[in-house]
Here is the input.
Amino acid sequence: MKKLVDDIPVSYRQEIGDGYYVSITTGFYCIDIRKFFIPHGKTEIVATRRGLALRLGEWANLRKIMVAIDNSHPTLATAMSCCSMMTT
Here is the structure.
């Protein structure tokens, strides 16, 4: 995110589970959280319409809230997503 703010070219994408990715790309001042999939007969992932884009200030606020939630409810750190439970 710092590179984006400093106008340094950036192209970052990280899977966070169940086909969802967090990405940051030069020219878009937001953090994109989106579902991706591999179309039939293809080998590369493609973004779906399913997701959201948070402005940099919204992302910073979300991170603060996540820290407060983690501190208030430590048992949530061991919770499994319902999607993970379905595949096991």
